[in-house]
Specification:
Strands 1-7-4-9-2 form a 5-stranded mixed sheet, with no helix packed on it. Strands 3-8-5-6 form a 4-stranded antiparallel sheet, with no helix packed on it. Helix content is 0%, strand content 45%. The protein starts with 18 loop residues before the first strand and ends with a strand. The protein has 5 domains: 8-16 and 158-282, Jelly Rolls, CATH 2.60.120; 31-151, Jelly Rolls; 286-358 and 378-408; 428-507, Sandwich (Jelly Rolls); 508-591. By secondary structure, it is mainly β. The chain is elongated.
Length: 591
């Protein structure tokens, strides 16, 4: 068999599954852990779940790194097959990682391919040796990170003795039985039907296959979708850029004839290998076709219109997505096989999926660079309310497709919510010099403040004709002090004079004061609620306010004091603002 292709996971906004099945004769049903747990991190200073296999340094070139899996992190001592997420990072040269039972020889295949310096992850369904270990062969020096998602202890997955090539469109290459060979580069927008069941040791009654799909020799960027022949679904399995050779694994449902169809939107050669089959009846059920469950990009759709267009997810944010009770996914599904994509990331980072109601684990499911579109397959336990939480380390769009589900097993689910998103960062303050502005295009609607002098005058305008009828509200301050004004989105224009000085977009913050001087004040930010006393002069005027639009409707209560003397006012916590002139002097809180 030729050397494995390197996978440079760079795609064009589509989902790329990444499950790799190692050889096994066992059949299994996925039993997820409550959340993924970290078994290995060779980087200095990075922890694992139980303190083992941490900080060991880069795995050596052409070396083998042995990991005890059974009996750790909640994995039973009797486990024979596990679902791992394997990451290579800080590699010193381009290479690959092969995951194998430590008792077997090294197969001529790989599970993870990396470039020098790249951080990339892939999901691996790995058979353990009789003592519960797995070995990771590293072609070139690289750090390794391994998380475990669960076990396959019962009756679903059936592997071939070794991967077999089903199709290769390149001239002069080979397939295991010499069929589907040399068909030539696939034209744009074409569909290639490949027989799977009943060939190269695959059972004739197989319903789903674990396939390794490769694109090579493409002239432009594009994607490939694997599906049971029929209507092309809104999903994809492999994404490529011009000239790139890239492979990824697909858990694909077969049609009633045992065929799979490969749709490519741009011209490319296609290569298809098979590792094994996933049988129905053992707890795993494939979706009729892959279903898009969420797409946060604006204007993009999910299969049912839900969980679409939510916008880019914030750094350290968590997005809850309903995965059960949608389409043909039953409400009692306990585990799901998902294809999760990150795209348009603002900085390098990672994504972690975990059941709703559980704390975010110290684990990850995919890693991405700035602007990169990258995906991986995730075996996830379903959480409270049939939801899975998706944490984004740095801001990124998130796309999720579902390939299949499991029922039974550990059906208990946690209660509670996904962790809350962080508060949005404040919008940078904007400052405007005296003059007239168009609202919306030149000055945003919102609250503004200025350190006004005596004679500050402003107008909110419904038009620009200079008519009195076009004044929505205005104010002339005959004293110096803070000026606040709420500019409405319905205003056409906003104007203020030199005596107001610059207007700056309002920002709350600081400690409220217990005394009040002349000017406009926000209750709870500038001043506290309560009863205040002043030794007022004749002409003292004050207002309790619901806002600062300048409208009479903003006034909750007001008073003009015609004689000098002691005055009191009670400001309620429900008041938005309070305004007072300099004839009142300083108000001091008495309660």
């Amino acid at each position: 068999m030729p050397s494995p292709f390197r996978s440079l996971v760079l795609c064009l906004a589509c989902v790329v599954p990444g499950v790799v099945m190692t050889s096994s004769t066992a059949r299994a049903e996925f039993e997820p852990l409550p959340a993924p747990r970290r078994l290995v991190d060779t980087r200095p200073g990075e922890p694992t779940f139980d303190g083992l296999n941490q900080g060991d340094g880069r795995a050596a070139a052409e070396g083998t790194y042995t990991v005890q899996v059974a009996g750790r992190a909640g994995i039973p001592q009797s486990a024979s097959t596990v679902v791992l997420n394997v990451t290579a990072t800080e590699g010193l040269a381009s290479g690959f990682v092969t995951v194998t039972p430590c008792s077997d020889g090294l197969p001529r295949s790989s599970n993870l391919n990396f470039e020098a310096g790249q951080t990339i992850a892939n999901t691996v369904v790995a058979r353990l040796s009789s003592d519960g270990k797995v070995c990771l062969y590293t072609h070139q020096p690289t750090h390794l990170v391994v998380d475990v998602a669960g076990t396959l202890p019962t009756d679903t997955y059936r592997a071939l003795d070794s991967p077999q090539r089903l199709a290769d469109t390149r001239p002069g290459e080979f397939t295991a039985d010499s069929d589907f060979l040399g068909a030539g580069v696939r034209a744009p927008q074409s569909t290639y039907k490949v027989k799977v069941a009943g060939r190269v040791g695959v059972p004739s009654d197989a319903t789903s296959a674990v396939l390794n799909l490769t694109s090579t020799g493409s002239a432009t960027g594009g994607f490939v979708t694997a599906f049971p022949c029929g209507a092309i679904p809104n999903a994809s399995n492999l994404n490529f850029s011009a000239g790139q050779t890239i492979a990824n694994t697909v858990v694909a449902r077969l049609d009633e004839n045992g065929d799979v169809c490969l749709f490519n939107n741009q011209s490319t050669h296609l290569i298809l290998d098979i590792a094994g089959t996933m049988d129905e009846g053992g707890g795993y059920t494939p979706a009729e076709v892959p279903l898009r469950l969420t797409d946060t990009r604006p204007g993009e759709l999910t299969f049912d219109g839900n969980f679409s267009g939510a916008g880019i997810r914030p750094a350290t944010g968590t997005y809850p997505v309903l995965v059960t009770g949608r389409g043909d996914i039953p409400a009692d599904a306990t585990g799901v096989v998902l294809n999760v994509t990150s795209t348009q990331a603002a900085a390098p980072g990672f994504l972690t999926a975990h059941p709703r109601g559980t704390d975010r684990p110290t684990a990850s499911n995919l890693n991405f660079d700035t602007g990169q579109i990258v995906a991986n397959t995730v075996f996830a336990k379903v959480g409270a309310g049939g939801q899975v939480c998706f944490y984004t380390h740095t801001s990124s769009h998130v796309i999720v497709d579902i390939a299949g589900y499991t029922t039974g097993g550990n059906a208990s689910t946690p209660s509670g919510d996904c962790p809350a998103d962080p508060p949005p960062p404040p919008t940078p303050a904007q400052t405007f010099q005296p003059g007239q502005y168009l609202v919306g295009s030149q000055i945003p609607a919102g609250r503004y403040e200025a350190s006004g002098q005596s004679g500050c005058y402003w107008e909110r305008q419904s038009g620009l004709g200079g008519s009195f009828d076009e004044i929505n509200a205005n104010e002339f301050n005959g004293f110096a002090g803070r000026v606040l004004v709420d500019v409405a989105a319905s205003d056409v224009g906003f104007e203020f004079d030199d005596e107001c000085g610059p207007m700056t977009s309002y920002r709350s913050g600081g400690s409220p004061a217990a005394s009040i001087v002349a000017g406009d004040h926000v209750v709870g930010t500038h001043i506290t609620a309560g009863t205040y006393r002043a030794q007022a002069g004749s002409g003292c005027y004050w207002e309790r306010l619901t806002g600062f639009s300048g409208s009479l409707d903003d006034i909750i209560a007001n008073e003009f004091v015609g004689t000098a003397g002691q005055q009191f006012v009670t400001i309620e916590a429900s008041d938005v603002g309070f305004s007072t002139d300099d004839e009142c002097g300083t108000w001091t809180k008495v309660s």
